[in-house]
Design brief:
Residues 78-124 form the Retrotransposon Copia-like N-terminal domain. Keywords: Signal. Residues 1-23 form the signal peptide. This is Retrotransposon Copia-like N-terminal domain-containing protein. By secondary structure, the chain is an all-alpha fold. Among the domains are: 85-185, no CATH class; 212-252. 64% of the residues lie in helices and 0% in strands. The protein has ten helices and no strands. It has helices at residues 2-36, 68-71, 97-110, 115-118, 130-149, 153-159, 165-210, 217-224, 232-267, 272-275. Helix 5 crosses helix 7. The radius of gyration is 48 Å and the shape is rod-shaped. It starts with a helix and ends with a helix.
Length: 278
């Protein structure tokens, strides 16, 4: 009887140990499953987990895994995102605002943070939604730092005390877009002034050329065929030179004609023998 009792006791102890070990194994697998569960409820299969290669023992056994919900969530931050990050190579210096703005929009959009500067992401209530406000505040501060880091030192000092990234963005727009527009408008006005003068000069030139008689048709045609029309003064100078050349040619022609007429008169003068005088 003692032997049977000891045998039964040993079997009970063995079964208890097996049950405890099985429960421990089940709990371990459950925890591993929870680690692999993403925020949207999907589970990464164990066979999809990249294993550590023997050549790179320091690499994590499980690669960083993001669900689609994370990638489309503007409050999601990558492990490489930090307040010291500089998004673009050329900082805002006051003269390059629109180029700087375009580069910043592209950089923020690539990180799904554009809503923090264009006003589409609203500030949660700190009283009614403290958790949401804390998440928003963390992302807002990071975007705020990215904007300030992308400005020259003097400009950065002027906006660094704005608490909200959207306010920084709007202040830069109001300040530098107006300055840029003012500078551009002054250039437009100056160009328009020169354009008006050039247009008036062209009209005067055409009136002058079209008013000439047919004597100057050759030089007028040459001027009109030029790739770049001369000024009214240059055209007048060309016409004057042409007129002088015409006058000189006329004088030479008249002189030659007079000389020929005189020579003919000398040759046609009667000789004494022709008149019968001795």
């Amino acid at each position: 009887h003692l032997f049977n009792y000891l045998l039964m006791l040993s079997l009970n102890v063995l079964l208890t140990l097996v049950s405890v070990k099985e429960a421990h194994y089940t709990e371990k697998k459950k925890k591993e499953k929870e680690k692999l569960m993403s925020s949207d409820g999907s589970i990464m299969a164990l066979e999809d987990i990249p294993k550590t290669s023997s050549s790179d023992p320091q690499k994590s056994e499980i690669s960083t895994y993001f669900s689609k919900a994370d990638l489309f969530n503007p409050f999601f931050t990558h492990h490489s995102d930090n307040p010291e990050l500089i998004l673009i190579s050329k900082p805002l210096n006051g003269d390059n605002y629109f180029g700087w703005k375009r580069a910043m929009v592209q950089a923020l959009n690539s990180k799904n943070k554009l809503g923090f500067v264009n006003g589409s992401i609203k500030v949660p209530s700190e009283e009614t939604d403290p958790e949401g406000y804390a998440i928003w505040s963390r992302c807002n501060d990071m975007v705020h730092s990215w904007i300030v880091n992308s400005c020259d030192l003097e400009i950065a000092h002027s906006v660094t005390y704005y608490p909200i990234a959207h306010e920084v963005w709007e202040d830069l727009y109001e300040h530098f877009s107006q300055a840029y527009y003012t500078k551009l408008k002054s250039l437009w006005d100056e160009l328009a002034t020169h354009s008006d003068i050039a247009q008036a000069d062209r009209q005067k030139l055409m009136q002058f050329l079209m008013g000439l008689n047919e004597t100057y048709s050759a030089i007028r045609g040459q001027i009109l065929l030029m790739n770049h029309l001369p000024s009214i003064r240059q055209a007048y100078s060309s016409i004057s030179q042409e007129e002088k050349q015409c006058l000189l040619s006329s004088v030479h022609t008249n002189t030659d004609s007079s000389s020929s007429a005189a020579a003919m008169a000398v040759h046609s003068k009667p000789t004494p023998s022709a008149t019968g005088k001795t």
